[in-house]
Design goal:
Chain lengths: 206, 255
């Protein structure tokens, strides 16, 4: 038994250093082809649900990105201490939500991802959602690790940089994803005409 | 049995340590303070000590990686993580063209990042890369030395240096080769650059980061060379790849 325990420790150590889960490393190509095929049936190639990132919600729940699968997802990256652009982005999101017809509202999830995970704790995100009267389930606020956030931003083509401890410069992009996580539309800029974004959501939502 | 267990544990930990700690071929960059071309309002940046690969990752090394992690092979890679130009010069999943000790190029940011993670390393940040790369053979910060800038700018004008083998350009103050003269390199936070022409319209205008002053100020040669690098980074997306863009890995210094 003791030996077994050491083995477990050794493997645990090993997995700490490995770049990802064991399943990812695959020396047998034919196997990997099978795996790939199986995966492609569930998660499409361009789907953001290929990202293995973990997030915490404003309610302190731990989720994976792929838990959002099955709804139309509208995403924006913000930070709660932001004074200039973010309130307008929040307003834009609210404005978009208002224009989605009642019968389709349930099929759409609105997600705010923090670019300042250090400051934006779940408590802070919760407070932010209250301040903005976005406590309904359709508003989701997420905070991840710095690395996952950077990677997620890379997927959304959102660039950002910390310019002082409380301030970030960042792109203002609202992205729309279909039920399987493929990006269908991006709206760039502040307070721009959101007709196309709304249209994209209405076309997708059931 | 009692004898076995610690022995087994040792063997396993040695195995894993060997896999995890490939610090050979890395050089220590002692870090320090520098003023980057683009930063927070003319503030200097402190770079902590870190380890950096002495050479960029080569074709042969990258082949080994895709054999071990087949989901990064040319024909397996997901389009979310790499566009069509990924490993475009490779004849098939196992055959690269050119020299085995030439730098691998046409790899996306996702691929480069994953490669480094699989070596127990990471990509260097922009600040780490720029800090290490401001050294010439003799001094840590050679940015005001004319020959240093001439070398970089004449390289920018030389076509197809990505076909050359690694280790032929100067070994810098830290013992690192090819930061200039061979290929451009991915950085971990390449998407913190907000100076692409396209981002003019979508970037927070209130910031001091991007109001043109930095670019106008970038008039001397030293800044011109760096400006080119920042502009290139700003124009890239994480799934793009390019034939003159390779990478090398970095690592935190363990206490």
């Amino acid at each position: 038994m003791k030996k077994f325990r050491y083995l477990v420790i050794a493997f645990a150590l090993g997995s700490l250093f490995s770049c990802n889960s064991n399943s990812e490393k695959n020396t047998d190509t034919s196997d990997s082809a099978k795996v790939k095929k199986a995966e492609s049936e569930t998660i499409l190639e361009m789907s953001i649900y290929n990202l293995p990132s973990h997030w915490t919600t404003q309610n302190g729940e731990e989720i994976e990105l792929k838990d959002l699968q099955g709804k139309v997802v509208v995403m924006v990256m913000i930070y709660t201490t932001c004074k200039a652009a973010c309130p307008r982005l929040v307003a834009d999101m609210r404005n978009i939500e208002k224009q989605v017809p009642e019968e389709k509202k349930d099929d759409v999830q609105y997600v705010f991802v923090s670019i300042d995970p250090e400051t934006d704790t779940p408590e802070r995100l919760k407070a932010f959602s209250k301040e903005n009267e976005m406590e309904d389930d359709k508003w989701l606020f997420l905070r991840g690790t710095e690395a996952d956030t950077r990677e997620f931003a890379a997927v959304l083509a959102v660039n950002y940089k910390e310019i002082s401890p409380m301030d970030f410069s960042h792109s203002n992009i609202i992205s729309v994803f279909d039920h399987r996580g493929e990006m269908v539309h991006q709206q760039e800029g502040l307070g721009v005409d959101n007709k196309e974004t709304v249209q994209a959501i209405i076309e997708l939502a059931k | 049995m009692k004898f076995y267990s610690p022995a087994l544990f040792l063997v396993f930990s040695l195995l894993f340590c060997e896999l995890a700690a490939q610090n050979d071929n890395m050089a220590l960059v002692k870090g320090g303070v520098y003023l980057p071309l683009y930063g927070a309002e003319d503030q200097t940046v402190t770079v902590d000590p870190f380890l950096m690969d002495i050479y960029p990752v080569t074709n042969a090394e990258y082949l080994k990686f895709v054999e071990e992690y087949p989901q990064w092979k040319k024909n397996n890679v997901k389009t979310l993580f790499a566009d069509k130009s990924y490993l475009t010069n490779w004849k098939d999943d196992k055959t690269y063209q050119g020299l085995s000790n030439a730098p691998v190029t046409n790899v996306s940011w996702f691929a480069a990042k994953k490669y480094c993670e699989c070596q127990g390393k990471r990509l260097p940040t922009i600040d780490e890369w720029e800090f290490a790369a401001m050294a010439n053979e003799k001094v840590q910060d050679a940015r005001r030395i004319e020959t240093y800038n001439q070398f970089i700018l004449s390289w920018y004008e030389t076509p197809k240096t990505f076909n050359n083998p690694i280790g032929k350009n100067f070994k810098n103050y830290w013992g690192i080769y090819d930061l200039h003269g061979l290929v451009w390199e991915w950085t971990l936070d390449f998407n913190s650059v907000l100076i692409s022409g396209e981002s003019r319209k979508d970037v927070d205008k209130d910031s001091n980061l991007f109001c043109g002053s930095a670019a106008i100020g970038a008039s001397d040669l030293m800044n011109y060379a760096a400006f080119m690098r920042y502009a290139f980074r700003g124009s890239m997306k994480a799934r793009y790849s390019s034939q003159n863009l390779g990478f090398r890995c970095a690592k935190d210094v363990e206490n």
